[in-house]
Design goal:
CATH class of the largest domain: Mainly Beta
Number of domains: 2
Number of helices: 4
CATH superfamily of the largest domain: Rieske [2Fe-2S] iron-sulphur domain
Helix content: 10-25%
Strand order of the largest sheet: 1-9-8
Length: about 200
């Protein structure tokens, strides 16, 4: 009887069946590498597209506001605008400066001294954004005859936040003081808001 290739003679152990087994870890690595490569490629395309939407340096340079301080009397505050937001500029009296400096920092929700909120040698000039830090309303106190609130600074009629003469939150739901933007004095009577300090 002729033996075929697949038959095993009697008494001999059959040869083990060898099937090619693929390593699943190698396949997973290839999949992860392909997805990672695609992700890096997508970032390389998307980041320049997003970055081109940022304003250019010349646009940022033009987004400043120059304020003439010569007409603001001591104790007076004016309202102007900076980047489409209200801007309060206040000329503090020596009495208002003394009152602000007399407040213990432990009594303040957002502790800052008046010196931290003004420029050295110009502590009478307080420049803040006129946007309540609670929900973005415009506080009163920068116009003639406006309600300055119980602390003589600014008062937000929306929810009752009261700020002192240094525009620090003293009462009400606002969590932070009125924001002080970057600004520089060009002369004793002019200031540029939006310029790096």
């Amino acid at each position: 009887m002729a033996m075929t290739e697949n038959t095993v003679p009697p008494g001999e152990a059959p040869e083990p069946f060898h099937e090619e087994v693929h390593d699943p870890r190698r396949r997973d690595f290839i999949n992860v590498a392909a997805v990672s490569f695609a992700g890096v490629g997508a970032l390389a395309i998307v980041l320049p597209l997003i970055n081109q939407m940022n304003p250019s340096a010349d646009v940022l340079a033009q987004s400043t506001t120059e304020v003439d301080l010569s007409k603001i009397e001591p104790g007076q505050a004016i309202k102007t605008s900076f980047r489409k937001q209200p801007l309060f500029v206040r000329n503090l009296t020596p009495k208002e400066i003394a009152e602000a400096n007399a407040v213990p920092l432990s009594e303040l929700r957002d502790p800052q001294t008046l010196a931290e909120r003004t420029k050295p040698g110009k502590t009478n000039w307080l420049i803040t954004l006129g946007v309540c830090t609670h929900l973005g309303c415009v506080p009163l106190g920068a116009g003639e005859g406006e309600n300055k609130g119980p602390y003589g600074g600014y008062f937000c009629p929306c929810h009752g936040s009261a700020y002192d003469t240094a525009a620090r939150i003293r009462k009400g739901p606002a969590p932070l003081n009125l924001h002080v933007p970057d600004y520089t004095f060009n002369t004793d009577t002019t200031v540029t808001v939006g310029a790096a300090a």
